[in-house]
Design goal:
single chain, 316 residues, mainly alpha, ABC transporter involved in vitamin B12 uptake, BtuC, two-stranded antiparallel sheet, 76% helix, globular
Length: 316
């Protein structure tokens, strides 16, 4: 019976997010002639890249029942490390240094949460301040620029409809993290730990290892998002991507990732990003006052959180 209820709750979320996306697409298609144009679709995809990667990043720890508020700080610091490394040793070394830095910063978050037993919200909020501070010290508060124009590859259009290479990177990340969560033993461990950590421990699952690796994955993916941002202007600074972590978390919540852990999916988080971006795109195309954009997005987030709490209460 409980399993049947859980399935119904899952399908309610699935159908809800898909229905909302379809309705928005239909409304915008009928309201403006430019929405379905190739140029607008390519632009929409390009605007989704960074927040989409961060949404994939934050979905992993959220399913495991922890938060990562340091994503934008990790993106900024990793991008700065990448540019310094690229200038000294070339692009491949810079890419590796960036992702490695992100993973190490994620490891730091994981250790603080698991071994120091600091609440993940507080731990990652504090670590984000530390990481931004380190970025400011390294750059002396200035913008650092890359001498290697090849870094711009991620922002350059490919030969297919002008879609940027960064879009393909985002799609690859979404597919790979989706498979990791939905089709692997580690993914099942994430759901088990997020759903009931004590029961997961009794089942032989290491909560500490699961949380630490979740933060490391989040950190590595945040670094990739930082690389995309750096590629657009061949530069980085301590404020790179500031505030985007909240948009990513909002997208994940809208997509049905539970704030309590144990529920969620990458494809729904990506669809949440798509919904948020559709709202912004629609306001621009229709010439509507942008002041109401935040109102609509905030109302959507409140509805998603309320729905999650209602479905959980109904199942208990």
């Amino acid at each position: 019976m409980a399993e049947h209820k859980g399935l119904l709750r899952q399908r309610s979320r699935d159908f809800g997010i898909v229905f909302a996306a379809v309705v928005l697409v239909v409304v915008l298609s009928l309201s403006t002639s430019t929405f379905l144009s190739v140029a607008n679709m390519v632009n929409l995809l390009d605007q989704i890249i960074v927040v989409g990667i961060l949404a994939c990043a934050v979905t992993v720890p959220m399913i495991a029942g922890v938060f990562d508020l340091s994503m934008s700080a990790i993106a900024a610091l990793s991008a700065i490390i990448a540019i310094h490394t690229i200038n000294a040793f070339g692009l491949p070394a810079g890419l590796l240094a960036s992702v490695g830095t992100g993973a190490l910063l994620g490891l730091f978050n994981g250790v603080m949460v698991t071994y120091a037993r600091v609440n993940s919200f507080i731990a990652t909020l504090a670590s984000s301040m530390v990481f931004v501070g380190l970025a400011t010290v390294i750059t002396d508060g200035q913008i650092v620029k890359s001498d290697d124009a090849s870094l711009q590859l991620l922002s350059r259009p490919s030969g297919f409809l002008g879609i940027t290479w960064g879009t393909y990177v985002f799609i690859a990340i979404a597919i790979l993290t989706g498979i990791l969560i939905a089709k692997t033993i580690y993914g099942r461990a994430l759901y088990a730990v997020g759903g009931n950590a004590a029961a997961a421990t009794l089942s032989g699952i290491s909560v500490v290892r699961t949380h630490i690796t979740a933060f490391m994955i989040s950190g590595a993916l945040s670094a990739v998002a930082g690389l995309v941002l750096a590629s657009r202007a061949l530069s980085a600074q301590p404020a790179t991507g500031q505030g985007l972590e909240f948009t990513a978390i909002a997208a994940a919540v809208i997509g049905g990732v539970s704030l309590n852990g144990g529920a969620g999916a990458i494809w729904r988080s990506v669809l949440g990003v798509f919904l948020l971006q559709l709202i912004g795109n629609g306001f621009n195309l229709l010439g509507a006052p942008t002041i109401f954009q935040k109102v609509v997005q905030g109302a959507l987030i409140l509805f998603a959180v309320s729905l999650d709490q209602f479905l959980r209460a109904r199942d208990t």
